[in-house]
């Protein structure tokens, strides 16, 4: 029996966040000494901290919020592939792989080499990858990167292109210990009614 592999970034004050965004913090509201019975904590974090999913509302004012998303997207069979390319991720990089019928696709780029620091540049998704993946049946795209667009992008063309094709986004998964292959994925967002994104505890179990 294979084990579940945790592909989530640990959340602490050291977790790198998007430049200028809210740092993660955890503190005790009450200590056991003060309350006489329990430690009770509070957390402050950006919705795009660590391993997380984007709701369409992140980049579209009319888009779905986290609680509106279908949980089935985030549980089920997933394919992990290794990307070998230069600069950006495009259909020709994946053309040799048979992705027909793959509903959840996780792309291991290995490009975020130091998870203690936010990367300076990342390979991005070319918008033309969206129709290519949608054609194969992909509904969830995950990456070991903090965005599907270049870090300085304001228009977010890949986010929009994926959204137009009904493909949801999982970012900053930790895939360096994960061999390409077939897995069961669980990466459920929190039931946040209004939010534009949510941290997830993402795990994979090898099935093939
Ligand atoms: N698109 C990125 C996040 C992002 O763009 C962002 C996250 C936090 C603070 C500012 C951001 N973008 C600003 O232009 C993501 O989906 O996680
Ligand atoms: Zn995000
Ligand atoms: Zn994003």
Automatic annotation (TrEMBL):
According to the record, how does the cofactor bind? Binds 2 zinc ions per subunit.
Q: Which UniProt keywords apply?
A: Hydrolase, Metal-binding, Tryptophan catabolism, Zinc
**Residues making up the signal peptide according to the UniProt record:** none
Which gene is the coding source of this polypeptide chain?
Answer: kynB
Residues where Zn(2+) 1 binds: 48, 52, 54, 171
Q: Which residues form the active site?
A: 58 (proton donor/acceptor)
GO-annotated molecular function: arylformamidase activity; formamidase activity; zinc ion binding
Task: Give the residues the record marks as binding Zn(2+) 2.
Answer: 54, 159, 171
What's the protein name? Kynurenine formamidase
Give the quaternary structure.
Homodimer.
Q: What does this protein need as cofactor? A: Zn(2+)
Tell me which family the UniProt entry assigns to this protein.
Belongs to the Cyclase 1 superfamily. KynB family.
Q: Which reaction does it catalyse?
A: N-formyl-L-kynurenine + H2O = L-kynurenine + formate + H(+)
Which EC class is the enzyme in? hydrolase
Q: In which pathway does it act?
A: Amino-acid degradation; L-tryptophan degradation via kynurenine pathway; L-kynurenine from L-tryptophan: step 2/2
A GO BP term, please? L-tryptophan catabolic process to kynurenine
**Whose protein is this, by species?**
Marinithermofilum abyssi
Residues binding substrate, per UniProt:
18
Q: What does this protein do?
A: Catalyzes the hydrolysis of N-formyl-L-kynurenine to L-kynurenine, the second step in the kynurenine pathway of tryptophan degradation.
Gene3D superfamilies documented for this protein: Putative cyclase
Query: What EC designation does it have?
Result: 3.5.1.9
One of this protein's Pfam families, by short name?
A: Cyclase
